[in-house]
């Protein structure tokens, strides 16, 4: 593996060290290791984020651990795992050894989660991403095997010496993602690093070094060696990053998306039905950006962003060209919801997450047509009831989906949706749509019809709920009359 050393000057080292404030817990731990003759260094994202002065970074000056965005501290040490465990005994509030096979011991102290890993100089089998663990003898070799130079910096405790053998500080200043060694070697060892490049592009708004990008293009297929769970986790972090579109573009441009999310590149060149965008792919990225802007202070919202990403994936499968040359995508929301469930299941997302995202995809098109004045109060009630707890997200998704460059049309769509939201608010205030129930409950149905519990009661309840959605609240005598009418029609009573 060819590795180029690009160490900072002494002045740069001192300046970097001044940006890092070490929590007392870290220095306490460093003193224990030093007394036993071992080295201990803070490494990874906490060092990087402190130098970037990212909000809430744990090692940034003046940040209380309780307010930190990232509660984990990662350390590298010359001590072997059994020695680390011995040093933690009596100091840590809890320890765990789930990663001991890879040289990692976990601990907790004063609310901070700590992971301490023995210096490594392992090789990978290049079939799976599992390393063949071999302990190293020095920090530089350990840092050389990390994914990017900006993650290959270290800070000693308790000595507070900044170590940067591969130019991470320079790459931080240049906002560039570069590997410590040859990109092809790094990605052959662990293909997940290619996906991490896209994730960091989204999180940090960094550019990818041309040599790194080219290696990803040439090796994208190797991502197939990685488990779905690992890919899911990186995609999730990418989507909730500060600039998810930057990461998504890298996935598509390098061919990574073809491996685990082929529906996204499939949207290219699929001209949308309004012919107002270059293609559905560009429209989709615009919708994702719009959704990010509409999140407000509660963001990032993964459910909303994933729904924005997937909302039109049914278009390629439903594309049709009419006799007049017009393009249509009838029922693409239904097909898209089914495709979303399939893809998210393959990526091992939870059932609840899949349900929420696919339901938003299925509902995102229902609003169109509201401006023609065809919606009754019944249609509004169904819209609210079908969206249920997702209604606030559905509002944002529908508004995000308006990407027309025609100002008059955009203004009209915005007015129409505002009118719908106002109408929903009015009906909500009058009827409490979040708790829509039939005017008669199961007990009342059984008593009035003189029937025991069973399928007939459920069918009657469902009928009365549909009636409630259609006509709004009914007076008790009218609800009872409708129940008797339905029961006679069904042959339940004479």
- What's the rounded overall pLDDT mean? 88
Low-confidence stretches: none
Q: Enumerate the strands of the largest sheet in spatial order, edge to edge or round the barrel.
A: 3-4-5-2-1-8-9
Shape: elongated
What is the number of independent domains? 4
**How is the CATH topology of the largest domain named?**
Beta Polymerase, domain 2
**Helix/strand/pairing category:** alpha+beta
| Tally of strands | 13
Main sheet record: 7 strands, mixed
Organism: Actinocatenispora sera
Domain HD/PDEase: 276-373
Keywords: Coiled coil, Magnesium, Metal-binding, Nucleotide-binding, Nucleotidyltransferase, Transferase, tRNA processing
GO biological process, one term: tRNA processing
Structural description of this entry:
The protein is elongated and about 90 Å long. The chain has 4 domains: 10-180, 2-Layer Sandwich (Beta Polymerase, domain 2), CATH 3.30.460.10; 182-261, Orthogonal Bundle (Hydrophobic Seed Protein), CATH 1.10.110.30; 293-434, no CATH class; 437-489. The model has no long low-confidence stretch (mean pLDDT 88). The strands form 4 sheets. The chain has a 7-stranded mixed sheet with strand order 3-4-5-2-1-8-9. The protein is of the alpha+beta class and 494 residues long. It contains 23 helices and 13 strands. The longest helix is centred in the C-terminal third of the chain and has 25 residues, at 407-431.
Fold topology:
Blueprint: H1 10-18, H2 24-35, E1 40-43, H3 45-52, E2 72-77, H4 81-88, E3 94-96, E4 104-109, E5 112-118, E6 123-124, E7 131-132, H5 139-144, E8 154-156, E9 162-163, H6 168-173, E10 176-177, H7 183-189, H8 192-204, E11 207-208, H9 210-219, H10 228-239, H11 244-254, H12 256-260, H13 280-294, H14 302-310, H15 315-318, E12 320-321, E13 327-328, H16 332-346, H17 351-363, H18 377-387, H19 391-400, H20 407-431, H21 442-449, H22 455-471, H23 476-489
